[in-house]
Amino acid sequence: MTELEKKGKAALVPSGWDYAPAPESREIVRIDERYGHFVGGEWLEPRETYTTIAPASEEPLAEVGQATPEEVYGAIATAREAFENGWSGLPGSERAKYLFRIARILQERSREFAVLESLNGGKPIKESRDVDLPLAAAHFFYYAGWADKLEYAFPNRRPRPVGVAGQIIPWNFPLLMLAWKIAPALAAGNTVVLKPAETTPLTALLFCDVVRQAELPAGVVNIVTGDGRAGAAIVEGDVDKIAFTGSTEVGKAIQREVAGSGKRLTLELGGKAANIVFDDCALDQAVEGIVNGIYFNQGHVCCAGSRLFVQESIHDDLVEKLKRRMKTLRVGDPLDKNTDIGAINSRAQLEKIQELVAAGEEEGAEIYQPPCKLPERGYWFAPTVFTNVAQSYRIAQEEIFGPVLSVLTFRTPAEAVEKANNTPYGLSAGIWTEKGSRILWMAERLRAGVVWANTFNRFDPASPFGGYKESGFGREGGRHGLEPYLEFEP
Ligand code: NDP
């Protein structure tokens, strides 16, 4: 073949790089038509039900119980019985065995859980498969390790469990939040009543099967489903401790409700994290971190890097690179393995995002969304970035909880700290710079529970997580995460 012929052939190579669909099969998951509440190791027929759907298609998936206060109180009484009649007296090494078993079963069934999580919650399968499931199993492994070492974790303090924990979790990381709540509670010797979010109950209900498979004693883990009314009943019920993750508004209401009751409380609430980029950073790496920080899980992340602070000298370069990178993000079917951004979790959340984005445009910020075709059915929102944002704009102040980034600028480290801390929240922050000394200087001054340096959204069960100010109090993860589930003998 002559050189010319070769060139001619090369020209036939297609220049468009569309991805062929790569759907994960739903076959592995069996969804029942109807679910009750899981209490005392049994399924109780619910008095009321509602339909849970797939947000990507609005397809109904199952009928799920809407717990009444009486049903919730019954679950709490069952948990108390299990606490008093066996679980709290079990040696830590025995409790550990159950937790190890749960961790291993989650690993074995991880594909099934990942598919169900993406189906019911809308998040991309590659995230549920590679982040949610491995981390959920890791939490059970980690806390299994502490169960027989509590005396060493808290030397000379004689730890003992507090009793029944009421746990209320949100819809952004349904199974992972369940693991964050249940693993330390059980390791410390408590029993639990947990309520998943109204829109994402299915992986918590599948977890009941894991509990059964692990032969956990009846009543140690109880799951009731339903909307905020069921959550409120847990708070009002005879529980010793409440662990809540969700909005600041509901967190405050819960705090008011339990004030003076003697119930222990930890709150993990909203955030408006600052992701701070200095001009000496590795720019391409920072762009990846920014994308991960805000578009991971459609931005439904309490620690999302939703306020980007860029050093003025690199603003234009960075924004250009960011927009170019955004064009490569694929929005669509959560069960497609190529999808980067899945469905918005619910119509209500979509409306909230739309309202705040409209406010951003109205207040004068400049909007950019890459060209992308959104599916016709279901709840979708294109990845969005706002430039020319003033600190007073709602999009720079309020938690949007969607794939929407606000870009602001700064000149000096001190200015970056001041602007980053100018928020009612204090959950997380990110710093991008080459200088270690600057990272430490910044981290000391940022009022945020977690500060990442040259990375973002890194989680490890050994590392405590929690907030300052309106992001709540108490820590989850690590040895710190055991403490709220223990009381100490004088
Ligand atoms: P909520 O705070 O309402 O939900 C969190 C959990 O609390 C859910 O299980 C919810 O049930 C339950 N709940 C609701 N009302 C009560 C109550 N009065 N007493 C006890 N439990 C209650 O958050 P939303 O789902 O409404 O989301 C609203 C906003 O909150 C989002 O737009 C986002 O900004 C923020 N958010 C922050 C999260 C975080 O991790 N920081 C997580 C989720 C939301 P139900 O699902 O039935 O409402």
Question: How would you describe this protein?
Answer:
With 490 residues, the chain is an alpha/beta fold. It has two domains: 37-269 and 470-487, Aldehyde Dehydrogenase, Chain A, domain 1; 274-460, Aldehyde Dehydrogenase, Chain A, domain 2, CATH 3.40.309. It has 16 helices and 20 strands. A seven-stranded mixed sheet has the order 14-15-16-13-12-17-18, with helices on both faces. Helix 14 links the parallel strand 15 (384-387) and strand 16. The longest helix is centred in the first third of the chain and has 22 residues, at 125-146. The model has no long low-confidence stretch (mean pLDDT 96). Bound molecules: NADPH dihydro-nicotinamide-adenine-dinucleotide phosphate.
Highlighted features:
490 residues; Aldehyde Dehydrogenase, Chain A, domain 1; seven-stranded mixed sheet; 16 helices; 20 strands; 39% helix; binds NADPH dihydro-nicotinamide-adenine-dinucleotide phosphate
Q: Give the end-to-end Cα distance, rounded to a whole number of Å.
A: 89 Å
CATH class category label of the largest domain: Alpha Beta
Q: Can you tell me the overall shape?
A: globular
Number of strands: 20
Give the low-pLDDT segments.
none
Output the radius of gyration: 23 Å
Strand content: 15-25%
The hetero compounds bound to this protein are:
NADPH dihydro-nicotinamide-adenine-dinucleotide phosphate
Give the gist of this structure.
The protein has 490 residues and is of the alpha/beta class. The chain has helices at 3-10, 69-84, 92-108, 110-121, 125-146, 150-153, 174-187, 202-213, 228-236, 248-258, 283-295, 315-326, 347-363, 394-397, 413-420, 436-445; strands spanning 34-35, 37-39, 42-44, 49-54, 59-65, 159-161, 164-168, 191-195, 221-223, 241-245, 264-268, 274-277, 307-311, 366-368, 384-387, 404-410, 428-432, 450-453, 472-473, 486-488. 39% of the residues lie in helices and 17% in strands.
